[in-house]
Amino acid sequence: MTNKYEPKLKTASKEDSYKIYVFELNGEKKDLEYYIYDFDWETNEKEGISPLSIMEDWISILNKGKLPEETYLVLANGGKIPVTDIDAFISVKKKTSDLVRTNVTIAAPLFEWAKLKAKNESTSFSDLVSRGLQMLKESKKEVSVWFKEQRAYFMDKLGDYGSLEVAHYLPNNYSLFEIDVLRGALKKAELRRTGWPIGVYLTNTDKGPKPQEDGIKAEYGESMHLLLDYWYAKTTSEFYFSRNLPSDSGNGNAEPKTVLYFDTLVWRIAESIEHCIEYYRSLGIDSSESVNIKISIHGISGRTLSAWNPGRAFTLSKYTAGANKSTWQVELKLSELDVNKDEFIYDAAKKLLVMFDFFVPNKQVVQEILDNEYRKSRI
After folding, report:
1. What is the pTM of this model?
2. pLDDT at residue 103 is higher than 60
3. Same domain for 265 and 357?
């Protein structure tokens, strides 16, 4: 196909890890300028692909010989994305080095998302990508709202008892997981270190997990050593879990609503992180994928620290919580969370327990709990 427009390279400049090419294009009424933002410039130069040939293909192939409506063409991860608003793709609020890493990372997921949507909607690929970029801005808000809805539901049923809450998701993943895939991953992620593991999946009772339109959820009510246990796994990767604190349901000798067991909390932090890792691994998520995980304890105001092991409890009773909630949260690669999980377990314990009169747990004690108790437990 012959172009009726003759592009001419006006300027070329390099911005950190990408290049910008500005072209003049002789239109029917006036001269026009178009911009190519090339994140793949090193590969393109090695393969002898010139900016002019890319510009010509933009007109002849991508736009079928017509004048492009979009002003910008972004090249990233081997793909070509025409956009009308370059600021939506490269946020001017961030440093250039951060921009490049962020947008190269999200380019591939955006391609996959747009391809899936394009099968069901009669709209252009570039429009879908633009919408995807906007969705990135809103996705964290939507996830946060969903987590808050699950918390409100659980808290309404639990009442004013204390609870442990775990919430995690994949911020850069656009996959939809089938119910059967979720079901298999949830079963594999169970860690049989305690009598009632996080995300427990009972199959021999009519009170077990139930399929939902957007995932699977389970709710286990009052028993001898449990007030309420609740979890929800969504097809879009979000996982929410909440359970009453052990000291509130007859585990140990404490009166309900009076203490927080320090050593039991270390167990639950470790189990939360390990469950998260195993769950996403069982879903087939690549270890380079980012995960956002948040662990919180609620209903702790006025409680004192104690321990399931009486030998540890003696020195802890002087520490009292001055706030009703404490939270630890991190976003990082799944592989990093796995390789350095003990460091993150300790970091989470420090952050969650600081509300108890600035209490800082001894790192060696935490490690001993992990190595000599938690990891040696099998049920």
Report:
1. 0.67
2. no
3. yes
